Amino acid sequence: MTENNLTPYASRAETADRMKITGSRPAVFWMTGLSGSGKSTVAALAEKKLIEEGHAALMIDGDTVRTGLCRGLGFSPEDRHENLRRIAELAKIAALSGQTVLVCTISPTIADREQARAILSPAVRFYEVWMAADVRECAARDPKGLYKKAFAGEIPNFTGVSAPYEKPEHPDITFPASMRAEACADVLARTALETDWDLDRLMQTMLRAAKEASAKIMEYYEGSYAVEYKEDKSPLTSADTASNAILTGIFRREFPEFSILSEEEADSTERLSNNAGVFIIDPLDGTKEFLSHNGEFCVSIGFASGHRVRAGVIAVPAQRIFYFAAEGHGAFKLSFDALTDSFAFGLDGEPISVSDRREKLIVTASRSHGDRETEALLAANEDRILRTVTAGSCLKGCLIAEGKADIHYRFGAFMKEWDTAAMQVICEEAGAAFTDLHGRPVRANREDPVNRDGFIILNHPESALTIPDGLL
């Protein structure tokens, strides 16, 4: 049978559908470098880290493949070229199944690595990773005893000794020989996770969606709106529902692989089994502040994966500013007018961080939801408190994140995930501790979205107040 008689059959499954199961966007890390440079060691560590995070990952080791798929191929230039072609095709199939693939192979020539890139792109995200240890450093390690044999002439065509190695010209990631394997693996795992979320695109979409929803909210704020009341007696305005329609419409269109948990939509247990991620949305946080016309209301958008909030945006429509953060990248403040189509994380926005105060603390309290437990806590610790600042919605956390306040305590099961998700990652990335009242981490995307054990935000652990007996 000739190639003319072949009819490839396309899969009926979409990448978004696979991502909901595996949690991984198709990506291949093509790790190149001399024998002994640490390719397999680093890849195995990264694979383990990703799997522990709940993401599908697979390491393909060059030596292992030669015992099966590529058995019978030698080390001539022609056989090496065919060996790498087969590995690239295998990596493509594995990646398209919904996995992050880490390929460990010397792949000594630029042409061979470009062949791999051509096979894999644009179907999957391709990263060329160079383990930059030179011959002297690899020979000193010589974990397999191969360099000793190569220098003695016992192994012909040994890359770096009797066969050339062409260094990558523009690798996507470079690891110097001095970098510890664990640290290298951390970089690969973080890059893979951010590829799964497509971080810059994710953040820009969240920012632009929040800005669009804010504009709609302000139309109602400066005009007229309808008000009704939910079963729990909390108000619901036409601004809430309009903002929710904008946000959920954008996210379902741009990121169909992610689920949505929103205050203004019926909850679905589907989100609990979605390993790709979930948007956690409060389309108008601070409806009472909206009705009071004090400007202290927000659009709150969190993104969670693996039961952790990974990114968050809080927009303040009346002030035309964003607070935003992503895990491992810090927290920032940005004006609506400064948002551009070329947004890049770390390049746009003013970095914010918590204060270093440990005494004479500034406490934030709810403007519209006071409670006796907080009053008792503040009274019992009045010698450590400089003043109390009231604020609406999740602005309390934003004040702590930018160092204008220091601590916040919230008792009782009043708040839900959509009230706190974005605030949590912004505060944490600004340097704060965000826990429940017992000091435990606050998990995201729970079956029960109610924060039944309250929460605490501290600019520093030493700022913790003494909770009187009977309040917990």
Q: Can you summarize this structure?
A:
The protein has 472 residues and is an alpha/beta fold. The protein is 34% helix and 21% strand.
Structural commentary:
This protein is α/β, with parallel strands linked by helices. The protein has 3 domains: 14-197, Rossmann fold (3-Layer(aba) Sandwich); 199-352, 2-Layer Sandwich (Fructose-1,6-Bisphosphatase, Chain A, domain 1); 361-463, 3-Layer(aba) Sandwich (D-Maltodextrin-Binding Protein, domain 2). 34% of the residues lie in helices and 21% in strands. The longest helix has 23 residues, at 199-221.
Provide the CATH top-level class of the largest domain: Alpha Beta
* Count of helical regions: 14
Rg, alpha carbons = 27 Å
Q: What is the spatial order of strands in the main beta sheet?
A: 8-9-10-11-12-13-14
CATH 2nd-level architecture of the largest domain? 3-Layer(aba) Sandwich
The named CATH superfamily of the largest domain: P-loop containing nucleotide triphosphate hydrolases
Count of distinct strands: 19
Distance between the termini: 75 Å
Shape: elongated
Uncertain runs with pLDDT below 50, 5 residues or more? none
Mean pLDDT: 92
% residues in beta strands: 15-25%
Number of domains: 3
Share of helix, binned: 25-40%
Biggest sheet, open or closed, and with what strands and sense? 7 strands, mixed
Class by helix and strand content?
A: alpha/beta
From the 3D structure, determine the CATH topology of the largest domain. Rossmann fold
Q: How would you describe the oligomerization state of the chains in this entry?
A: single chain
